[in-house]
Each structure stands twice: as structure tokens, then as C-alpha cells.
Amino acid sequence: MASRGDIHYLFDLAVQMEKDSIRFYRNFAVNFPDLGVLEAIIQKEQEHLRFLAAAAPA
User: Fold this and answer.
1) Residue 43: pLDDT band with limits 50, 70, 90
2) Of 6, 21, 39, 51, most Cβ neighbours within 10 A?
3) Neighbouring residues of 22: CB distance < 8 A, sequence distance ≥ 6
4) How far is 36 from 1, CA to CA, in rounded Å?
């Protein structure tokens, strides 16, 4: 379990991982523009990022 000080670090880490994932799938999609599944994955990752931003501790 994260201590109060660690929760900010964990949220920052989760946000960075989501951003990295979005970048990865966008770069991958450049080579496979006809794969709609990649756009669906990107949208899902963006949804995760919005959720994390809304839930981030003050």
C-alpha cells in the first residue's frame, strides 16, 4: 500500500505510462492506418488518462 507521499508519485507514474502508451500506438498506427482497432486502443488510453487526471490527489 502506498503511503500518502507515494500516492502522488504513483499517479504521476500512471499518467506517464498512459502517455507513453498513446505515443506508442500512434506511432504504430502510422504504419497501419487501416487498422481501426489501433484508433480504438488510442481512444481507450486517452480515456484512462482523463480518468487519472480527474482522480489525481490534490
Assistant:
1) very high
2) 21
3) 42, 45, 46, 49
4) 38
Q: What is the pTM of this model?
A: 0.80
3-state class (DSSP) for residue 42 = helix
Residues comprising the chain, all counted: 58
- Model pLDDT for residues 8-33, shown as the tens digit of each residue: 888 999 999 999 999 999 998 888 87
Residue 34 DSSP SS3: coil
